[in-house]
């Protein structure tokens, strides 16, 4: 029996790869216009369709529009960011302080994705050995939302410089629920052609060839088809899309951000 062709069309594949390569952690390009409810609903639906250990679906979504709540989060960020800055010295410290690492008040909407570690009961299928699998599952919901947001022209920024216990207190989370991702959402003036930290000279993307091992850690791939394909992939997305270094900045149409 012939094998069914389950691939997307070339155009559909290009769209998937484009979302992956053009997704950015947005901090500085937010516009004040709201995200329409129907768009936000699609993003949440995409997040809710992430895979999860034991089909646990441990996530919840806290939609935060309140200025008062966001100001509390921003104050917490400021304290934690100052502590983080103190870990660096010299030129690196100066460079760190120049970075803008959040858009809590700049974005029209904040979203906290949480993980209910008690959901599914005390024994969740597949979580017996790796107890953190529920947290990993919640991260997959974050990625689903992020890629869907890029397809919708919505920017997302993950604010990781927050103290989880204090964040949980501000948001009134139950004891069994932990915050996984605090996100800033909104339409943007542009998606940068490269990650912002790369453009700022903080770090550059590592060569993929150095991160792929053969059979065991530290053993490089032998010369052959996969090694050649990896070399080719670094020149552009395999589906024929554009490499992120060649992506043009695409402003969001004004009608979507009024």
Automatic annotation (TrEMBL):
Keywords: Oxidoreductase. Its EC number is 1.13.11.79. It comes from the Bacteria. This is 5,6-dimethylbenzimidazole synthase. The gene is bluB.
